[in-house]
Amino acid sequence: MNGFQIVVLWSDVLVWLLLASGIGVGVLIARSPPLLAAWRRVGASRAGMASATVLLAFLGIGLLDSLHYRVALDGKPGEKTQYAIEVLSLLDALVGPLRTENEKTYSAPFATHLYAKETIERPGQGTLREFPRLRFGGSHLAEPAAAPADIAATAAGAAALAVLGWLALVVLVANRRENPGDPTVDRQNWPKIGWSRLWRGETVFAWNAVLLTLLLILLTLLPLFALAGDYHVFGTDKVGQDVLYQILKSVRTALIIGLVTTLVMLPVAVLLGIVAGYFRGWVDDLIQYLYTVLNSIPGVLLIAAAVLMMQVVIDTHPQWFATAAERADLRLLALCFILGITSWTGLCRLLRGETLKLRELEYIQAAQAFGVSSWRIILRHILPNLMHIVIIALVMDFSGLVLAEAVLSYVGIGVDPTMTSFGTMINNARMELGREPVVWWSLAAAFAAMFILVLAANLFADAVRDAFDPRAA
Amino acid sequence: MLAYIVRRLLYAIPILIGVNLITFALFFIVNTPDDMARMQLGIKRVTPEAIEKWKEARGYDKPLFVNSAAGGLSTVTETIFFEKSVRMFAGDFGRAEDGRDIAREIGTRMGPSLAIALPTFILGLFVTVSLALTLAFFRATAFDFWGVVICVAAMSISGLFYIIGGQYLIAKVWKLVPISGFGEGLDAWRFLILPVCIGVVAGIGSSTRWYRTIFLEEVSKDYVRTARAKGLPETLVFFRHILRNALIPILTGVVVVIPTLFMGSLLTESFFGIPGLGSYTIDAIQAQDFAVVRSMVFIGSVLYIVGLILTDISYTLVDPRIRFS
C-alpha cells in the first residue's frame, strides 16, 4: 500500500462547510416551532419525501467524491516522497475498476466487442477486418454469446440481494414506534407503525413513499454496480472511458453548481434586500440602482464576459496551481461566484418588498417605540419572518442552476473542459448522433441522469414551497 | 402620457451608464489589455513587440482614462474609456477580430435572429396560454393533475435535449426538413419550421405551469364568484373575465422579452446554423473576440431596458387602476 497525501480543494471545503451549516440550520429549525411544523408538512408529502430520497442518494455520491487525495509514487527509500499528479477521490477508490478499465474507443452498453472494425492478424487466416473483443467488457467470458445469460444471472442475483436488504429495512421501519412529537402521549404506549399502516400510508411521515423509492434505487444501483465490474453498463465514450464513471463524477459538479452558487449569493441578497426595505431613503435607491443595473445585463452574456475574463486571469497565472484539478476547481468556484452575482437580484427584490410590508406591522412599530435598535429588530423580528422566502428560493434555484450548467458548458463558458460534468459530457458527445451507426449511449446517459436529478429537485422544491408558502395554505 | 414616457427614458440613462461602467471594468480593469493580447496571441508568439502591435491595431495602447500627452480636449477623448465605452452610446462598436465593423454585422444579422425568435415567441405564447387556460378550466380533476405532472417533467428536461433530440429525430431520421442552414426569402420556411417548433415545445413545461398558477389565482377572486352568481356560463366567465384579468400579470413577464428577441437564441442558432446574432455571440465567445462580446453585452442591456419601459407603458394602457405618476 502506497502512502497518500490528502488534498483539500476549495470546493471540498465549501461542500463540507455547506453540510455543517445544513446540520446547524437543522438544529435551529428543531428549536423553532413554526419552521418545524412546516418541515413536518414536507415530511408528510409523498412526492416530497420520495424526491428527497433520490436527492440524498445523489448527495451521498457527491460527498464521497469530495474527499480528495494524491497517491505516493514508488521511489527509492530515503528520497523525498513524490506524489502522483492525478488527484483522486474516495469515490474513485470505491469504484476502482470503472476508472482504470478503459477501452480503445466507443463500445455500446454491455458490449463485448468494440464499436469499430479493426484489421487483425490471425495466424493461418491472414488479415481480417472484424470487431475486436473488448479489453475489459465481458472479458471474463470465454464465449461472447454467453453474455446475455451471464448478465441476467448477475443482475438477478443483485436484485435478489437488493430486495432482501430492502425487506430488512421495512422490518426496521415497521417495528419503529410512531413519533408524533407530542409530549402528551404516554411514551410507553406509542403505537408501533406496523405493516398495515405502512402499507396503507397512514403514518405521519411519508414512510411508504420513502421505502418505495429506496426499493427502486436499490433495484437500480445494486445490479448496476454488480454488472459494472465485468461490463461497461452504459458503454464507453470516444477515448474508451466508462460512461457510468463519468456520470458518477458529474454528480458532484452539478451539486456544487446548484448549492454553492446559492450559498454565495444568499448573504448578499438577504442583507441588501432587508437593508433596502427597512431603511428606505437613499440606501434603498442605491441598492435598487445596483440590482437594476446588474439585472439589465442579459445573464448569459454577463456570464460569458466574466468567464472569458476569468480564463485570462487563470491562463496568465499558471504558477498558482499545483495540479490540473486545482485549476479546474478554481474555475468551478469562479463560475459559482459569477452565477451567484447574476442570480441574487431576484431574491433581493422579493425580500425588499416583503420587508417594506413587514416594517409597517404593529409589532415592529412597537419594537421601534421601545427604542430597540434597528439591527436588533432586523435580526430578531424581520429575518425570522423572511426565512420561508429564503428557503423556497434556495430549493427553487437548484434545478435551474443544474440545467444552466449544461447549457453554459456547451457554449464553452461553463466548467473547465477537463472537469467531468453533464455539460461537458453532452458537449463531447454533440457529434455522436451524426455517426453511422449512431452512438447514442453517452448522450442518453447524461440526459437521463440530469433529468432524474432535476426532476427530483423540482418535486422537492414544490413540496417545500407548498409547506412554507403561507399563501398556498 | 408623454411626460411619463420621457421621465422613464431619463431614468434609463443612469442605468445604461452603470452597465457601461461594469463592462468597462470587466474588460479593461480586471484584465489589462496586455493579458488579452497574450491570450489572443497564444503562448508561442508572445513577444513584447507582438503585444504592442496587437494593442496598437485595436487601439488598446492608449491610457485608460486620462491621456495627458494629447492635451486639450483630446486628454479625455484619446483614451480607451472614451473610444471603447463612451462611443457605444453613439452606436459605434468598433471592429471585430476579423476586421469587420461590428455595428454593420449586427444590422445584417438581426433579420435571421428575428425570423426565428418572433414566430417562436408568438406561437409559444399562444400555445402555453391556451394549455394553461385548459388546465385551469379542468382544475382539480385528473386531467389537471396529469397535465401538471407532465409540465413538471417537461421542465426538468434540459433544453439541449429538445434541440439535439428534435434535430436527430425529425431532420436526420425522418428527413422532413433540412438539418441546418438558412435561406433567403420565402424559401426560408423549410429551415425555420423545425427550430421554431422545438423552441415552442421546449418552453411549454415551465410557462404553462406558471400561467396556470396565475389563472388559478384569478379564479378564486371575488369578481369571479359574482360573475357566477349572476348566472354567467362557465366558459363566458373564463374568457371574458378571468382571461382578461390574468393578462395583466402575464404581461409583466412577456413585454419585457419582446425587445430582447432581437438578440436571438444562442443555442438554437448555433445548432441550426442560422446566421443570426445568437450564433454571432457564440462564435465570438469561442474565438475570444472581446470587442464583439462587449458590444453584445451593451446592446442586450439597452434592449432589456427598452423592454422595462415598454412594460411600464403597457401596464398603464391595460390597467386603468395605474396612473401615469
Automatic annotation (TrEMBL), chain A:
TM regions (residue ranges): 6-30, 42-64, 151-174, 205-228, 254-279, 291-312, 332-351, 386-413, 438-461
Signal peptide annotation: none
Keyword Transferase: no
InterPro entries xref list: BP-dependent_transpt_permease, MetI-like, MetI-like_sf
Main location: membrane
Gene Ontology BP, a term: transmembrane transport
Pfam families: BPD_transp_1
GO cellular component: plasma membrane
The protein's name: Peptide/nickel transport system permease protein
Entry's localization field: Cell membrane
Membrane topology: Multi-pass membrane protein
Domain (ABC transmembrane type-1): residue spans on this chain: 251-461
Similarity remark: Belongs to the binding-protein-dependent transport system permease family.
Keyword Transferase recorded: no
PANTHER family referenced in this protein's UniProt entry, alphabetically: OLIGOPEPTIDE TRANSPORT SYSTEM PERMEASE PROTEIN AMID, OLIGOPEPTIDE TRANSPORT SYSTEM PERMEASE PROTEIN APPC
Organism: Azonexus fungiphilus
Key words, A-Z: Cell membrane, Membrane, Peptide transport, Protein transport, Transmembrane, Transmembrane helix, Transport
UniProtKB/TrEMBL annotation, chain B:
Family designation: Belongs to the binding-protein-dependent transport system permease family.
InterPro entries, alphabetized: BPD_transp_1_N, MetI-like, MetI-like_sf
Subcellular location: Cell membrane
Cellular-component GO terms for this entry: plasma membrane
Domain ABC transmembrane type-1: 110-314
Organism of provenance: Azonexus fungiphilus
Keyword Transmembrane: yes
Record field: transmembrane: 9-30, 114-138, 145-171, 191-211, 246-267, 296-318
GO BP, sorted A to Z: transmembrane transport
Swiss-Prot/TrEMBL keywords: Cell membrane, Membrane, Transmembrane, Transmembrane helix, Transport
Keyword set includes Lipoprotein: no
Membrane topology per record: Multi-pass membrane protein
Protein name, UniProt field: Peptide/nickel transport system permease protein
